[in-house]
Design a protein that fits this description.
single chain, 199 residues, mainly alpha
């Protein structure tokens, strides 16, 4: 984990342009972009558009889970806030329903054995335009899970705590309740798995 603040990481990730306004940045997501992708890519490769790099380096399972959780939370919170800013109650309600289903699917995937976890490519993933060349930014390589493998109790607890904190940022009461319930589910399962680990 970087010692840089979220604002400092955002400034590095979007340099030479200012970070976009209104987007909810996550420290883990930006830290991955700066240290695992940007600094990993040789300067000569960046100059020619990154054509010689097909994919980002592999990262550990715990880091991938944290990154996937950050991406999902960032997308849910940002989408909901934008929908609410439109001032259309119907749009905000539909967005809340979609986000609730997104959170539920993510939590089910984390708890499953083997896990089914996808990383949603959100900024600064995708492509960063560096004048005059767009530089492709690959998403991390997903880890390979064994047929009976599970996300560790510690990682589930970490994801649950982060999801619980995100739920407090949601103004839609129904969506907030569903997110907090999903967070509690992750925490409960995480505690259960920790309790079964031999000491």
């Amino acid at each position: 984990m970087s010692d840089l603040t979220t604002d400092e990481l955002a400034a590095i990730a979007y340099w030479p342009f200012p970070p976009p306004e209104g987007y909810i940045f996550d420290h883990e997501q930006l830290d991955h972009w700066v240290h695992d992708v940007l600094l990993f890519q040789p300067p000569s490769d960046r100059a020619n558009g990154g054509s010689s790099r097909a994919e980002a380096p592999e990262i550990g399972k715990s880091r991938f889970i944290a990154l996937a959780t950050a991406s999902m939370i960032g997308g849910v919170v940002t989408d909901q806030r934008f929908a609410e800013r439109l001032g259309d109650g119907e749009v905000a309600g539909k967005t809340a329903t979609t986000n609730a289903a997104r959170v539920a699917t993510f939590v089910d995937g984390l708890i499953a054995s083997p896990p089914a976890v996808e990383l949603t490519p959100l900024p600064p993933f995708g492509a960063v335009v560096v004048i005059p060349i767009p530089v492709p930014v690959p998403t991390p390589v997903p880890p390979e899970w064994g047929p009976d493998e599970q996300v560790t109790g510690r990682d589930l607890l970490s994801a649950g705590v982060r999801l619980h904190a995100a739920g407090r940022q949601i103004s839609d009461t129904s969506l907030q309740e569903q997110i907090l319930a999903a967070a509690e589910r992750l925490i409960d399962v995480g505690r259960s798995r920790l309790a079964t680990v031999p000491s």
